[in-house]
Amino acid sequence: MARPKIRALLIDISGTLMLGSAPTQRAVQALATLRRHGFPFRFCSNTSQESTSVLQKRMVEAGFDMQGGDSQELWTSLNAVQRHIQRRGLKRPYFLLSDAAKDECISAGLYDPSVRYDAVIVGFAPALMDYSHLNTAFRILVGEEDSQKGMGSEDPGTIPLIALHKARYIESSGHGHVLGPGPFVAALERATDREAEVLGKPSRGFFETVIESLESDREGRIAVIGDDVETDLGGGAIELCLWRILVKTGKYRGGDESREGVIGPDEVYESFAEFVDSLGLDCGSV
C-alpha cells in the first residue's frame, strides 16, 4: 500500500530516538529537520523508571532540541497515571514504581497514607518485582491486606489494577532485552481473575489524548513510529487507524514484524532518521 499523506507524527523515544542516553544514528538531525519545517509531532514514552522531567533533561543532554515551559510535546505513561489518579480521586494507590516515578504520580497532593489502599499501580521497577511486593499487591486486590481490614465494606473487586504498560521485555542499554513489567502484570491478572487497565501505549485512550493536543489542520493520516511492533504500534494505534512505522533499532529483532499473531506495520525502516529522510521535507514534499 502506498503511503498516505502524513499530517503529524507520534514518536517513541527509547529504542527509536535514543539507546540509553545516546541518540540513535542521525536522530538529532532528523528531529531538527521536522522542527525546521514545522512538521507536527509529539513524543510518546512508556517511561516508568524515571520521571518525565528527568527524561526530558536526558534528551536535551543527548542533543535534542526540546521545547520547555508549558509545551505539550512530551507525553508519558506517568502523565497518564497522574491524570487518572486525579480523575478517579484515588487517595492511596499501592505503587510498584521507582521512587521518582511514584513522586510524579502523587505530585497532585491527593495521597493520604491514613486511608486504605484503593488501587494497585504497576510499572517498570525491577527492585520491587519480588514475592513480597507482588503478594502485597495481590492481597490488596482481593481485600486481604492488613490495612484494609476494619476500614469499610467496599467490594475488593472494585479496587483497580492499573498498568503503565504491559511490555513483555524492554531494551536495556548494554544488556539487550530484559524482562519488562508485562509478565508481572499478567501474574496479578491471573491470580485475581481481572484485567489490568493499561494507561500508556498502546492503549487507545493514551493515543487519543496525545492526538487531541495536536493543533494540526493539515490533511492526511497521523503516523506513529517505534521499535516495538506490539507496544508502540499495536492496540490503539491499530484501532485508530494510525499509519504504523517500525524501525530496526532498540528492541527490534529480525522478524518481529512477521511473528505469528502480530499485525504487521505499514512500513519498516532501518532507523528514525531514514524514515524522516523518506518524507522528503528538504525537497519540498511530505
Task: Describe this protein's structure.
- There is one protein chain.
- With 286 residues, the chain is α/β, with parallel strands linked by helices.
- Helices cover 29% and strands 19% of the residues.
- It is built from 9 helices and 14 strands.
- The strands form 4 sheets. It has a 6-stranded parallel β-sheet. A 4-stranded parallel β-sheet has the order 6-7-8-11, covered by helices on one side.
- A hairpin with a 3-residue loop joins strand 9 and strand 10 (176-179).
- Helix 1 packs parallel to helix 9 (272-279) and helix 5 (131-141) crosses helix 6 (182-192).
- The two termini are 17 Å apart.
Strands, helices and their partners?
Blueprint: E1 6-12, E2 18-19, E3 22-23, H1 27-36, E4 41-45, H2 52-61, E5 74-76, H3 77-88, E6 93-96, H4 99-105, E7 119-122, H5 131-141, E8 161-163, E9 169-172, E10 176-179, H6 182-192, E11 197-198, H7 204-212, E12 221-226, H8 236-239, E13 243-247, E14 267-269, H9 272-279
Parallel strand pairs: 1-4, 1-12, 4-5, 6-7, 7-8, 8-11, 12-13, 13-14
Antiparallel strand pairs: 2-3, 9-10
Helix pairs in contact: 1-9, 5-6
- What is the average of the pLDDT values? 90
Instruction: Examine the secondary-structure arrangement and name the CATH architecture of the largest domain.
Output: 3-Layer(aba) Sandwich
Number of strands: 14
The biggest beta sheet, please? 6 strands, parallel
* Overall spatial form: globular
Structural class: alpha/beta
Distance, first to last CA: 17 Å
Helix content: 25-40%
GO molecular function, one term: phosphatase activity
InterPro entries: HAD-like_sf (IPR036412), HAD-SF_hydro_IIA (IPR006357), HAD_sf (IPR023214)
Pfam family, one: Hydrolase_like
